[in-house]
Design goal:
- The protein is mostly beta strands.
- Helices cover 5% and strands 41% of the residues.
- The strands form 6 sheets. The protein has a 5-stranded antiparallel beta sheet, with helices on one face. A 4-stranded antiparallel beta sheet has the order 3-4-5-6. The protein has a 4-stranded antiparallel beta sheet with strand order 7-8-9-10, with no helix packed on it.
- The longest helix is centred in the first third of the chain and has 16 residues.
């Protein structure tokens, strides 16, 4: 199956690479700003994460959930063949190769970090690997973190990677669906924001570090399926997006040692229609700063830190899978005061969003024929 897809994707790459200019797919007016959506790359196998190389080459590393990483040439709209050396992934259900992040000192050390569902004797678990980028391959691959428990299902792996200002690494995990009660267990890796050192050890000042074991890794708990994470550009605080059940997607600002309620409280119901919660709030459990009912199928998030579209600078963008849209959230401090939906006419599942080094907004569509797209100011 992988071989047939690879052969098919080669023809897409050859055809697409012949073009030297990005193709405009959509133009729309948002809050008085006229923007174009242009296609940078296509023919990708459910792209999940993107990391721009800081060498002014206009290149980005893009993960495909099936297990490959490719270089996308932003300037020439070319997509390379899969890079060698990527660890084997459990590509089933929601599992596979997930996020990618560069070391804060990548220009010096060339370290790349990936999160993925790792095959396990009991099924699979979320893992994080560190490896060196060597142009056409990765070398010195080592797994620096593994969830303590593997499960034989393809649900709720998380997972985003974000380096904190102190160069520790935040890892978000899902509750694995069948183990949702473990989100409330501080000595579990399910349904958590975790924080580790560069080598994957528990950060020594984590709130439950003295407990040892799985709890030493925990930053916050009571989460369902965290598929987005980003640092606020001014405060440096971590913000996360949490994929809820049928209703109840959330934006949170996870603080050390705090409980975010899942599955005890929430705003949604089960996919069967069954009631999940007795209340939407309880003492000792943190409320989200924003939630959606019905769900938008929230995935990746990003603060727009560019200046190509000045009116949008500082706003939070959230990718919507079920809504097939991009939510633009206007902030007043840590409050979300307005939501605007973009790209609904594109009618595509949006997996992730990020600011590029050129100051423009990039996003990934999550279909089998996935794409890297860019939003730019119409001239």
């Amino acid at each position: 199956m992988r071989i047939s897809y690879y052969l098919a994707s080669l023809s897409v790459i050859v055809t697409f690479s012949a073009f030297s200019h990005a193709k405009t797919l959509l133009s729309e007016t948002v809050d008085g700003v006229v923007v174009n959506v242009v296609e940078i790359a296509s023919g990708l196998d459910q792209p999940w994460g993107i990391a721009f190389l800081p060498d002014r080459s206009g290149r980005a590393l893009v993960t495909e959930r099936g297990g490959d990483i490719r270089i996308v040439e932003i300037k020439t709209n070319q997509t390379g063949k899969p890079l060698e050396g990527v660890p084997k992934v459990y590509a089933r259900g929601q599992g596979g190769l997930l996020d990618i992040a560069l070391s804060p000192t990548f220009a010096r050390d060339q370290w790349v970090f990936i999160s993925y569902s790792e095959p396990h004797k009991d099924g699979a678990r979320t893992a994080v690997a560190r490896m060196k980028f060597a142009e056409d391959r990765f070398t010195d691959v080592s797994v620096i973190f593994r969830q303590a428990q593997g499960l034989d299902n393809g649900f709720h792996f998380g997972s985003r990677l974000v380096f904190a200002p102190d160069k520790t690494l935040f890892i978000t995990t899902g509750d694995r669906y069948t183990e949702k009660d473990e989100a409330q267990n501080k000595n579990s890796h399910h349904g958590k924001v975790l924080r580790v050192t560069f080598d994957g050890k528990p950060a020594p000042d984590n709130p439950f570090a003295s407990a040892g074991g799985a709890g030493a890794y925990v930053w916050s708990f009571g989460h369902r399926n965290l598929q987005g994470a980003a640092l606020h550009p001014k405060t440096g605080k971590l913000w996360t997006s949490e994929h809820g059940p049928k209703g109840g997607d959330e934006i949170n600002i996870p603080l050390a040692g705090k409980n975010y309620g899942w599955p005890v409280v929430g705003f949604g119901i089960d996919y069967s229609g069954a009631k999940l919660h007795d209340a939407s709030a309880k003492p000792g459990m943190e409320a989200p700063v924003h939630h959606w009912v019905p769900s938008i199928g929230v995935s990746g998030i990003a603060f727009y830190t560019g200046d190509a579209i000045p009116k949008w600078t500082g706003r939070l963008f959230a990718a919507g899978l079920a809504s097939r849209s991009l939510a633009m959230l206007t902030l007043d401090g840590e409050k979300i005061v307005k939501e605007t939906r973009l790209l609904e006419k594109l009618n595509d599942r949006i997996r992730h969003v990020t600011t590029g080094p050129d100051g423009m907004l990039y996003f990934l569509t999550g279909e089998q024929n996935g794409r890297v797209l860019r939003i730019e100011l119409s001239r």
